[in-house]
Amino acid sequence: MRKILLLSTLLLSFSFANTLKVGASITPHAEILHFVKDKLKSEGIDLQIFEISDDVINNAKVDSGELDANYFQHEPFLLEFNKAKGTKLVKVASIHIEPMGVYSSKHKSFEPNDRAIISIPNDPTNESRALRIVESAGLIKLNDKEFVTPLDIVQNPKNLKFIELKDAQLPRSLSDVDYSLINSNFALQAGLSPATNSLYTENKYSNYANIVAVKKGKENDTKVLALIKALQSDDVKEFLKEKYKGAVIPAF
């Protein structure tokens, strides 16, 4: 009986040792993780995927050790989060880019009339990203700062008005505004195709690649390295191409 109990304990310990817990946004991050789950299983790793929509909770769970890693954010967001929350999370790999696009339910092109209303994300990094996209279209001029808000607009000849909202609320704002700048993951969740519905899209060589992040010190964890290898594979490249039709672009 003692040998059986000892064997059960060893098997249980092995099971826990080969479990990899990863937090992810539902679309497309969790979908991509599910695609590589069987590949990791064949290598003896049990990938457990936790779909978490709250960015703060997702990072906090990795910082506390409740999760081994997460996959939902870009590095500028992570660095700002660390600064604001005192967490010690680090990027281990870039996986894909979700181009931010301009959407509208009222207009056919991104040519705003005077005093047009535009909704943008309200977190520092994505708000800056959105405003830089509007600037790249020649509609406004911004201060040369790392993070900008509408208060940093120095030229606004059309008197455009910007409404700051939580990123998940942006698709729902389309009926109330002229335009909205929406990340591809939230556009996809709302049934919008970045490739066909967006009126203007940031350059595909954007610095805002979505990453896998871990707590500092766990960058070389063997299970994490196996996850990165699986995510940065030719199979995943093909999966992204076929499933997302340009809305999600490989960053490796």
Automatic annotation (TrEMBL):
This is Inner membrane lipoprotein NlpA. It is found in: Membrane. InterPro entries: Lipoprotein_NlpA (IPR004872). It comes from Campylobacter avium LMG 24591. Gene3D superfamilies: Periplasmic binding protein-like II. Residues 1-17 form the signal peptide. The keyword Lipoprotein applies. Belongs to the NlpA lipoprotein family. Keywords: Lipoprotein, Membrane, Palmitate, Signal. The keyword Signal applies.
